[in-house]
């Protein structure tokens, strides 16, 4: 299987919505990027870790990670495997015995930042979901298939209010496609 190692690049607020953040991961050569949506709490937790605020080492996630590292060393990896229902399908895998644990992508990234557990994805998913990495730009593209239904509905409402009917049409089509898919399962 062709796998690509992903590296944390940055996290930022989404303009116009304080409750949503955007995490950017890049390939090792920094040529492609994947954007992952997170909530405000996760964004703030990541900001706290990358800002190296004093007192982090005594926080529960850091303490637990230190305890596990001492016993298990480098036996885990994070795999972003697919996209389903507007979210990345992400697992933490114990590579010594094959056990897997499903986790929200944003939480897995936070764990990676704290613990150093490597993050991987498949070459196919990277090609499908990524954009060219342009550095820390003002605007980022985000594939519509990784936006939750509630965020799509909120964006649709805003697009209609702003009379941006082209975007409203695309958002509406994505919502219809998802609803039809849910009914066929």
Question: What do these coordinates show?
Answer:
- There is one protein chain.
- By secondary structure, the protein is of the alpha+beta class.
- Helix content is 41%, strand content 31%.
- It is built from six helices and eight strands; from the N terminus they run E-E-E-H-H-E-E-E-H-E-H-E-H-H.
- An eight-stranded mixed sheet has the order 6-5-4-7-1-2-3-8.
- Strand 2 (17-27) and strand 3 (32-39) form a beta hairpin.
- The longest helix is centred in the C-terminal third of the chain and has 20 residues, at 165-184.
- It is globular.
- The model has no long low-confidence stretch (mean pLDDT 84).
In brief:
The protein is α+β, with helices and mostly antiparallel strands.
Labels describing this entry:
single chain; 185 residues; eight-stranded mixed sheet; 6 helices; 31% strand; globular
Unreliable stretches: none
Helix percentage: 40-55%
Radius of gyration: 18 Å
Order of strands side by side in the largest beta sheet? 6-5-4-7-1-2-3-8
Layout of strands and helices, then pairs:
Blueprint (H helix, E strand, L loop, with lengths): L2 E12 L2 E11 L4 E8 H11 L9 H13 L3 E9 L2 E8 L5 E4 L1 H11 L3 E4 H7 L1 E2 L16 H13 L3 H20 L1
Parallel strand pairs: 4-7
Antiparallel strand pairs: 1-2, 1-7, 2-3, 3-8, 4-5, 5-6
Helix pairs in contact: 1-3, 5-6
